[in-house]
Fold:
Amino acid sequence: MTEVYNVQEVERKWQRIWEESGIYQVDDDDTRPRSYVLCMYPYPSGAAHQGHVKNYTFGDLNVRFRTMKGEAVLSPFGFDSFGLPAENAAIRTKIHPREYTDARIDELRSSVKRLGAVFDWRRESKSHDPSMIKWSQIIFARLYEAGLAYKAEAPVNWCPGCQTVLANEQVNSDGTCDRSGDIVERKNLSQWFFRITSYADDLLEGLDSLDWPERVKTMQRNWIGRSVGAKMKLKVAGLSDYSIEVYTTRPDTSFGMTYAVIAPEHPFVELITSSKIQDEKWKIDNVVSPEFSVSEQNSREIQDFVQSVKNLSDVDRVTTTSERPKRGIFTRCSVMNPFTGKLVPLYIADYVLMTYGTGAIMAVPGEDQRDYDFAKVFDLPIIRTVAPPEGFEGDAYTGSGEKINSEFLNGLSIEEAKSKAISWLQERDLGVASTQYRLRDWLISRQRYWGCPIPIVYCDKCGTSTVPVDDLPVLAPDDVEFLPTGESPLARHAIFSKAVCPKCGGPATRETDTMDTFVDSSWYFLRFCDSFNSKEPFSLTALEEWMPVDQYIGGIEHAILHLMYARFFTRALSDLSLVPKSLKEPFARLFTQGMIRMDGSKMSKSKGNLISPEQYFDGVGADALRLFHLFIGPPGDDFDWTGQADEMIEGCSRFLKRVYRVAVNEYVPTKVQDSESKLLREFTHRIIEKATIDYERWSYNTVVSGAMSLCNQIYKGISNGADSSSVDEAIDILIKLLAPMTPHICAELWSIRHDGEIVHLQKWPTPDQALLSSVKETLVVQVAGKVREKFEVDGSITEQEALALSMGSQKVLSFLANGSASRVVYRLPKLINLIP
RNA sequence: GCCCGGGUGGUGGAAUGGUAGACACGAAGGACUCAAAAUCCUUUGCUCGCAAGGGCGUGCGGGUUCGAAUCCCGCUCCGGGUACCA
Structure:
């Protein structure tokens, strides 16, 4: 009897059974040990693509494996359903973003189900659901009350082609718009921010405790960019009340300062170019001496320079090469080096950024390459304060060495000189030790419709207030017009923007900006722990039950943004007692899967190089496609989708059919060979051991190869006369080992072989230790490190026995010139190495 | 520029100091078949040899070790991140 495996029918059947039986639904009163496995919730862009297939295959496999190991696994699913594409579609097609998004969600949900991935669907969440909007707004209000949300003016990205404001992540690294390719411009707008910088140190230190890929942790550390140094004040010559504060990480090099630089946006630029500075009365009031000599003419030159810099795109501004040397202009002002009392010239240059440190630097061309480059262009002196090694021929020397030309610092190391210089400054009240971060506050305002409205009203009398909880959620109206004007439809809406002040009851204006969609993804994993709570976003007790996420799975592209924001939220909400005090980190363990590439670039809808999973669901089936994604290599590696992929998927399908045939056909041995039965049993139990280890270390490709070997061994056992109990055992083990990976076929086979039982509720197999220890080992005999002979030996072989066996081989002896070894290295029972 | 990864057969990859190339894909040959598909069997790193067997081989050059794809030093090529952060 050979039954044909009907892929489509069987996969549909089991998908229905899993959904109806609710075996992957978990509740708070579950008595099994708990765990929480989560895939990053997706933006619903329609049917799943290969990246989703890979992601949810890893997630599903973890859920099923842990369940078979006896855990109650929280496995929820949701949709990151706010965002620009739906709004752009609305502008194009006039279909409302909600209608568009709901349709895409249905497509994605359906293809995730066709993959056979199991979730507790009762907990499904969508960012655009009014209840989720309400919780987001409550959380925003709490952050606002705690001073962690504030409004300030800031430059935003504006795409002239799309006529809209863009999120940072939609701007390419070369400063162009991700969609239209236009060069993005800067505009100043009043914006809402989250004060993530006040958690900079916590976020940095928290990384140490996380079981995350080192790569991701390094990226976050660099992004936070903590640096320690000193701030000091440089007096401006001729302006007795004015000084310019600079930040440096190298206070030890202060004696090498030959000029100073301020950013074009520095407030001092405004002062020296304003007309009032030419006013005689102002000069007397502010004690200006003749040393201060900015004339109207210089002032105009300076203004011209600053304007020319502001006209540059961000890309051009950060580019300085040999063809495009450093730009700057002399201010005609001098500042005093506090260490030497000497005056040095003050320049304005755009290689100094207003957004970092104090927006002003002391320039030390001897020990900083950027300062060196600038000094060469403007012919400024260069003084070395660290002795470079003999024969050093570079420009700036940034290495270690002895301090020189630095008076009381001479002879010290850089580190010693740093702390001595800082104490010197502090004793004289001229400067302080200071720590700076590259991390900026998180700009969350979006001038868009399809996002969570910021629940704020502005009153002329009472100022800014949050919308009272009873009035939440603030929902965007449906009767808006989607036009490509760049202005949010909400701002144009006559009624929405009008509000009542919650404090005085008078007329007020409503905030029309919505939140960045990364706000939604910063707490959705908390909601999953308490999806049925209608009173609050989540309760402390539910979070104590399930958080933190034990295994988080997603793409490396979220290494900084989402993963940093979610960490910030968890810490901030912990400090506000909205999540348990002890919960500081949301994701204990993170896995970042590899990318699917095609022709060198990421496979994506926008690149038009999608290979749809649906065609495989319709053909070889979900199991074969899942197996392919698991088998092609280590889960974290990128994969290039070539013409051979289809052949490999076909191979996976062939393997599953091979398993099916051997499992459904009754085996009646003709002549039983006891040695073959023993061999098969030993092999089976070795594979249990290996596969279990490999599952736990995320080496799924080798789990698959182990399962293939076991299948080959079963066929061999059958043709060589293994008894039926050893064959049955091997087949059952094979089905269990494959069950987390290819769930449909395994469920079907187990059900056929075991009278309707559910394989995914079976206990995970454990190897029989007695069988493992009775296994014959291969003893490799090396002569001078080269393999010359092999013997099948007992695991307990002694050194004497191994040596005697080796020396008994003519072949081994022929490589030993005088018939004996001067030294023997034993690694029994695997290896013996004879050195002549 | 700086910071990470990585380089193993025709291809995807295995091997965490101890048999390099597991397991697959592809290819070649064979069995079954009127034929094809499906399935099964054999071969498949390079090279010398009729064979037995030998030599070479994990990007390149050195080192440590009885033994190195694996550890260390220098180089090279490819991929990713980041970009004047003082």
